[in-house]
Specification:
Layout lengths: L1 E9 L13 E3 L3 E7 L8 H12 L4 E9 L2 H5 L4 E5 L2 E2 L9 E3 L12 E3 L3 E2 L9 E4 L4 E3 L1 H9 L5 E5 L1 E2 L7 E5 L2 E2 L7 E2 L8 E2 L2 E2 L7 E3 L1 E2 L4 E2 L10 E4 L2 E2 L12 E3 L1 H9 L5 E5 L1 E2 L1
Parallel strand pairs: 6-10, 9-13, 15-22, 19-23, 21-26
Antiparallel strand pairs: 1-3, 1-4, 2-3, 5-24, 5-25, 7-8, 10-11, 11-14, 12-14, 16-20, 17-18, 22-24
Bound molecules: zinc ion (ZN).
């Protein structure tokens, strides 16, 4: 596996660490840089970030994404994949009139909000993908996805019809029926250089164990279930993220080789896969 960090560097300070010709400029405000962990400049990022913050009260980088590339052999021998749902959209179920029971919501992290009845969304707002999620973590899948899943006899997902505020929907809400426990080797944090569990009054690791961090940094590590290979789809019990306005903490999702094979062969859109470590 080859891991690089894609950073969105503040162009005003990019010359503190990078040459003019390096990376890709996005207009005049952002420079995109792909950095390997072995690059000696990697460890300087947080040092410069803290310098820029102190001296100018600004940020050295705005955004980041860890990118992982696997060999064919690694992918073929994987026992479990982490599914990344790449496309998000709005408005959320809450904004479109979906009903929620909030009586047992965790007052610290916002977990345990219970959806009552069907997920209601707005027609024309769902991206043209076979899987996508709202910014509140509600997952919808296409008719094509459901047909392929059923045809192949996969298991682990419950599908519920999505309702549109106007007109008929041919989308389904995806609900994971089984959960996996993330292990302590799963690295979470605000970003790859800041592993704080709180910031600006927000707490990212709920003391009741519902949430573990703001962002996933490493590949996920899960605890082995005795019959882990008998299910094609799982959600993590613990959640990642924060309860901030419409944003809600979300599970991360896992799938089997057979599930990934379906996505590849049927050319289903909206998925990315990484490996998951089972302990
Ligand atoms: Zn909680």
């Amino acid at each position: 596996m080859k891991e690089t960090l894609e950073l969105r560097i503040n162009y005003d300070f990019a010359n503190l660490l990078f040459k003019d010709k390096e990376g890709k400029n996005l207009g005049t405000s952002v420079k995109i840089i792909d950095l390997s962990k072995d690059d000696p400049r990697y460890i300087q990022i947080p040092i410069i970030e803290s310098h820029v913050k102190k001296k100018y009260d600004r940020s050295f980088f705005f955004g980041w994404e860890v990118k992982r590339k696997y060999s064919k052999k690694e992918l073929n021998s994987a026992e479990l994949f982490h599914i990344k749902i790449k496309t998000t959209f709005e408005p959320t179920g809450e904004e479109c009139g979906t009903i929620f029971d909030e009586t047992s919501v965790c007052e610290i992290c916002g977990a345990n909000r219970k959806q009552v009845g069907p997920l209601t969304l707005m027609r024309g707002t769902i991206p043209k993908k076979d899987i996508a999620r709202t910014i509140a973590g509600e997952i919808v899948v296409s008719d094509k996805f459901v047909t392929a899943y059923k045809k192949r006899g996969l298991n682990g997902i419950k599908f519920e019809a999505v309702i549109f505020t106007k007109g008929n929907s041919d989308y389904y809400q995806l609900i994971a029926e089984k959960k996996l426990e993330l292990s302590q080797n799963t690295i979470v944090g605000i970003n790859p250089f800041d592993f704080s569990t709180s910031n600006a009054g927000e707490l990212y690791n709920c003391p009741k164990g519902h949430t573990i961090g703001l962002n996933l940094i490493s590949e996920p590590h899960v605890l082995r279930l005795s019959e882990i290979n008998k299910t094609d789809f799982y959600a993590s019990r613990q959640m990642i993220g924060v309860n901030r306005g419409l944003l809600k903490p979300e599970s991360i999702y896992f799938c089997s080789q057979d599930f990934k094979k379906m996505v590849d062969e049927e050319k289903l859109k909206g998925f990315e896969f990484e490996l998951t470590h089972i302990e």
